[in-house]
Amino acid sequence: MFESQGTLKFYKDELLAARQGVGHFFTTRFGGVSGREGNLLNFSFSRETEEESFKVAENVRIAANYFGLDWKRFTAVRQVHGERIVRVTEEIAGARFGKPDLVIDADAMITDLPLTPLITTHGDCLPVYICYKDKAVGMVHSGWRGCAQNIGGKTAEAMCREFGALPEDLLCAIGPSICRKCFEIDAPVYEILKKEFPNEELYSYDPQRNKYFADLQGMVVLSLKSAGVRSCNISNAAPCTCCAENRGTFFSYRGEKGANEGLMGAAIWRV
Ligand SMILES: [Zn+2]
Fold this sequence. Notes:
- With about 270 residues, the protein is α+β, with helices and mostly antiparallel strands.
- It is built from six helices and 15 strands.
- Strand 8 and strand 9 form a beta hairpin.
């Protein structure tokens, strides 16, 4: 569901939004100070000019203010399409924001610290939100490489290990990301994914163009389920970032052929 105020617009997952003690959001293009017309909410922390990095910082402050959060507590990692999961302790909280020089290579974060939003950035790759009651949260960036490495399920397992959660206590939501109709791949990527997820239903094939299509959301659901998360506690209802009808709402790396003017931010925190 979308939530708007003025020019700001966020997407929230209904199942997660109903959970007490946890806040989350997924940004859209709208409400920031980036872009040619100075109205885009770019959340790309790492690949911009100095001028744009000031604007991105301002965009983060705009979102933080809207949710009543301290932007210096936002915590981000440098996403490397790997499988490393970082537990965010007080020493790490604020990495890239309150602690701008602290750069950690990873693709998932977990924490039990309150009011410490874990934020990942996305331009088609899957955001996976995980919460353990009102006690701990996790945020995952999963592109196809992350899916092939089961980073979703591994993060759920890490929350059980680190915080004493039972898998059935976890609530997970996959945020806006590229759908199976849009995620076109060549044979080598198909072969890598197929090794980890052999289920034929996750794929389709276009013989005329010799292209495959893969259901990354379906893979994350399977990954979470094999970590013990119940189906009824996995929300997978978010819109596609790449489908033509959604391009006005989201940045899309594929949809804009790498010329996207920004990335979206996905954040979760304990209140
Ligand atoms: Zn799509």
